[in-house]
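pinned: reference chain
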Amino acid sequence: MLLLGTPLAWWLARTRSAWRRPVSAVVTLPLVLPPTVLGFYLLIAMGPDGPAGRLTQALGIGLLPFTFAGLVVASLIYSLPFAVQPIQQAFEAIGRQPLEAAATLRASPLDAFFYVALPLARPGLLTATVMSFAHTVGEFGVVLMIGGSIPDKTRVLSMQIYDHVEALEYAQSHWLAAGMLVFSFAVMLLLTLFKRESRP
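pinned: its structure tokens
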């Protein structure tokens, strides 16, 4: 997520291209699009007649739906805004002066990115890491469409809770749901501490 989200966030924060707004809209689309809708179109795209499905078959990878690899790809797309937005905001908050100062000291653009921009954007990177991970762990709709609920293969925690409730196994549901509740609280507390430490 960070390997894809960081350069994308950097481009969105720095570019003046006309493509900036359309790309930003596509990246943030999962925030408002129902997960089942996104999952449906990903299922079509990754299926045997979809463009991604044809590509993976041509590469010898096979089809991605109902596999762990398919879950990873779908989760990456669905959680991308939770990685990109905090990092983009952190890059925008840096401004141009530190990078211009680095340039006057003969730092290359690559050096300025790794040794100036990234350290200054550390709070945004930490927020993106925590938020994207937590969001992916709790996902249900996209997981249901792309992975189903295959035991020991694509069944995740949110699907396990749903299966227990469907089977009227409320005790097991309570344990798993309570664990997710504690986990979510810990995530939000961690983010609060990150923000507090990053303040001057």
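why pinned: The chain has a mean pLDDT of 86. The chain has one domain: 2-198.
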